[in-house]
Design goal:
Strand content: 25-35%
Structural class: alpha/beta
Largest sheet: 5 strands, parallel
Radius of gyration: 22 Å
Number of strands: 12
Helix content: 25-40%
Amino acid sequence: MGMNDPGGMRASDAEREAVVERLREASVEGRLTLLELTDRTEAAYLAATHAELAQITADLPGNTGLPRDAAARPFSPSAPAPPGSNRRWYVAVMGETKRRGKWRVDQEIGAVAVMGDVTIDLREAEVRSNQIDIVATAVMGDVKIIVPDGVDVDMSGIAVMGDKKVDVLEAPPGQNVPVIRIRAYAVMGDVKVIGDSRAKPIKRAWFAWSEWLGERRADVREDAREHPRSLHAQRHELHRGHQDAMREQREEFREQRRQARRDARHGGPPPPPYPPEPPYPPQR
């Protein structure tokens, strides 16, 4: 690429944000799934030149490459969709409910698992706003939510003799990425949010920017792994060790609990409770 090629000009932060905003507009129009939106958003933030930014939106209508006035456009994130009274519910009572594949998310989501399992896969969903709100309740059951790596997951709620867990490679702070807000209530059950890399893979389309995105994504994650650990990170690792010990004990009882669910359908006793938590390791 020659020095006089305008596509080789270095991209600015404002130009990257302009492309991210165009991707969000395309998502609202139903042109991109949540996985496509997240992948392309990450690519936009990692793009180095105008030519790379233009590749990311090349298949979107009205695209003529990077807009000339991108740097002059003010960036204003759109407000999340207002909470409505219509919530789409997915319920499993001593059974199993799954929602995956192509579907539209245009309202809040509710998931309830009572001695059952609910799986909600958002990767191929068409999302009409930059925020998805989910209420997840697990009572002696499991709620699993699958999201693309690179989104921002905000989980709140409580766990009583249960677990609420986020295992997602989230985007760096300050990036305008899709937000998944979850209120989790786990009573002798589990509410888990897992990223794409932790779930069964789904087919991705190949684009011209896919190769360089993979290389730069690997570089960013390698730098993060090599960064010296702070005291906060060490304490976080200690806390995770305690959580892992709890999780290992629950796994031993998981199969017993599943068998008890089946027995309960025929009038048997309820599933056994989780064992008491192991003692917390001493602080250093």
